């Protein structure tokens, strides 16, 4: 952490940015192809430009669809990995002979498996606009089922396995969602939209943590059951949306006379 902070301090300053340190003439959709002198760039115009880009991005149904999953999926993922060490320790205490801790090895395998799954899905050619909702539904349902099984499992080895599979599915779907969001964005809005999505996800996690710590004391197993129901609910919603889109497309097909 200290090395990262030191390295950050040694980086050269940013001379230009989209909203606050724009070049003398910046031609963007927001400025409607008119020069925007840097010295005239006031806070009011910055806020207006940010709001314009935000409204333009989130007025598109596809961005909303993928962003909603991105926020919900990321929030659930962060919550799961926050409490996994507690669950592993609980299983170890229940049966220290058969449930030996291998947290370090699992945490090392976890990102590697996620990287492999992400690389693999990048090689798949699929019409994500058509099949994306169904893929999100299937993946999220599997995640939820894995978490429900985890909440009842007594084998730490199996829990480790479920955790790695859960992470692979998350990284895969997060990659798909991110690429689909980026497909409909202009380049200047990438940081704005993804930053907003991450902020909302972290806000939700913070509120949930505050609720758990201050108001309730849910056992870890029950907590994972709640996480499982949460992911299953998201999966069912996206499955219903996919089914609705499919039925609507079928009814709109021209009928032969």
From TrEMBL:
Alphabetic keyword roster: Membrane, Transmembrane, Transmembrane helix
User: Per the record, GO CC terms?
Assistant: plasma membrane
Q: Which InterPro entries match?
A: Folate_carrier, MFS_trans_sf
Record Pfam families = Folate_carrier
Q: Which SUPFAM superfamilies match?
A: MFS general substrate transporter
Provide the transmembrane region boundaries.
68-88, 133-151, 157-177, 189-211, 223-244
Cite a single GO MF annotation: vitamin transmembrane transporter activity
Respond yes or no to whether keyword Transmembrane helix is given for this record.
yes
Q: What domain of life is recorded for the organism?
A: Eukaryota
Instruction: Please give the family membership noted in the entry.
Output: Belongs to the reduced folate carrier (RFC) transporter (TC 2.A.48) family.
Query: Protein name, please?
Result: Folate transporter 1
Species the sequence originates in: Cacopsylla melanoneura
* Lineage, top ranks: Eukaryota, Metazoa, Ecdysozoa, Arthropoda, Hexapoda
